[in-house]
Amino acid sequence: MPVGWGWNPETLSAIATTLAALAAISALATFWWRWRDKRDEAHHAKRRDAEDFRVWTEKEGDELFMFVFNGAANPVFDVRVAIDLVSRNGSDKRYAMSRACVPSRRGLDPVRRALSKSVREDWEPWAKKRSVNDEPMVEYHFRDTAGIWWQRTTDGRLIEITEPVAGLPSDWRHSDTAREPV
Description:
Number of strands: 9
Radius of gyration: 28 Å
Largest sheet: 6 strands, mixed
Number of helices: 2
Shape: elongated
């Protein structure tokens, strides 16, 4: 004899089991989404200060200047900047600056820094060979207030790194500004 759907115990049990399974799946999904959101929020909070620190070059007339802007709420330390004079032979990075950078005041322009004599002497013939985009890219390493080391590559990627190598990275050439406060 077929079992009809009605108010028999098996029907109630099947409905209750289905609802309990849906509630458990919903609770598990909610927990997972909240955990993921908190993890992403912590990751973004950790990167926030690093994302707001920028260094770039600009040409003004026949001079090349480096601009430093720390839009973060906290200072950054042990900043090491290299000017990248890219050629057909590859990358040629010149060490340009080392210092700590306090936060820039809101609404103010970035700090403009003159480059060392040796970097300018290397840049001038490089720039004359280029009719377009004669402002070299920069690569820099720095440490935030949490002690995390960061690297901003010449293509703009921000990468968390383990402590950088002692001294200069092997692909950076030394200039006369290594100990010169800029």
